[in-house]
From TrEMBL:
Homodimer. GO terms for biological process: tRNA N1-guanine methylation. Residues 5-225 form the tRNA methyltransferase TRMD/TRM10-type domain. S-adenosyl-L-methionine binds at G113, I133, G134, D135, Y136, V137, L138. This is tRNA (guanine-N(1)-)-methyltransferase. SUPFAM superfamilies: alpha/beta knot (SSF75217). One of its GO terms (molecular function) is tRNA (guanine(37)-N1)-methyltransferase activity. It holds the Pfam family tRNA_m1G_MT. Its EC number is 2.1.1.228.
Length: 249
């Protein structure tokens, strides 16, 4: 059974878009995942198939109607247990741990907003999670959906060349990844860090760990303090189990 992406959108032709190429495209062709779009316009009202209306309370822009979204959600066939996700800057930030949870399930149903967004009631009533891909505002949810899907699809079994490349990378252990270098060893007057040419695997691992820590501390104080907290807790736990081990002897 393949992993199934179901996308509710006013622009179905945007999919699979860039995910039809490269690794994701090959996996799509090979049936590892499937990408089904469902046009919200089908459920629009009246001669013009209107999907939106003006906001109660006034203000700029238009809001996608709850009844239109509900009709679309009822019309699709998504696998049992697939989370429903509305992409919105008001959502909880998407993290690698969410991506890996989605990738381990049967698939996802993604609702792409346009205009000012979607009537809040249908999100509540139909158990639709709200997820943001970052602190900036896009013109529509489609590019955000492509980001979420790209992150999920590369984790599906058999999509990436080596399973290792998914384990040892940014965020997987709470740190950003160390820097990479390849040939030539000397370029534009810059030499590759010597330790990487040493063949000393322990020294290389230690250097990479230190780099990952320094870069995270500098660039992402939020990740760094979470990582320090976790390390402290782990050390405390190890200390406790060490003590009980000694008293047990
Ligand atoms: N008025 C909204 C922004 C609407 S942008 C607000 O201020 O919160 C139009 C649509 O683009 C949204 O409904 C959403 O589906 C999508 N979108 C914009 N920015 C996004 C982000 N950072 N993450 C996920 N989706 C986003």
């Amino acid at each position: 059974m393949s992993w199934q992406a179901t996308i509710l959108t006013l622009f179905p032709e945007m999919f699979p878009g860039p995910l039809g190429l490269s690794l994701a495209g090959r996996a799509l062709g090979g049936g590892v995942w499937s990408c089904q779009t469902h046009d919200l316009r089908q459920h629009g009202l009246g001669r013009h198939r209107a999907v939106d209306d003006t906001p109660f309370g006034g203000g700029a822009g238009m809001v996608i109607r709850a009844d239109v979204v509900d009709a679309a959600v009822s019309a699709i066939q998504a696998p049992e247990g697939a989370p429903r996700v509305f992409l919105t800057p008001r959502g909880r930030p998407l993290r690698q741990q969410d991506v890996s949870r989605y990738a381990q399930g049967p698939g996802v149903v993604l609702l792409c907003g346009r205009f000012e967004g979607v009537d809040e009631r249908v999100l509540e009533a139909r158990g639709i999670e709200q997820v943001s891909i970052g602190d900036y505002v896009l013109s529509g949810g489609e590019t955000a959906a492509l980001v979420l899907l790209d992150a999920c699809v590369r984790l599906l079994p058999g999509v990436m060349g080596s399973d290792e490349s998914g384990v040892e990378e940014s965020f997987s252990d709470g740190l950003l990844e160390y820097p990479h270098y390849t040939r030539p060893a000397s370029w534009d007057g810059r030499d590759v860090p010597e330790v990487l040419l040493s063949g000393n695997h322990a020294a290389i691992a230690a250097w990479r760990q230190k780099q990952a820590e320094e870069i995270t501390r500098e660039r992402r104080p939020d990740l760094w303090s979470a990582w320090l907290d976790r390390r402290e807790r782990n050390e405390a736990a190890a200390g406790r189990s060490g003590q009980s081990g000694r008293t047990g002897v």
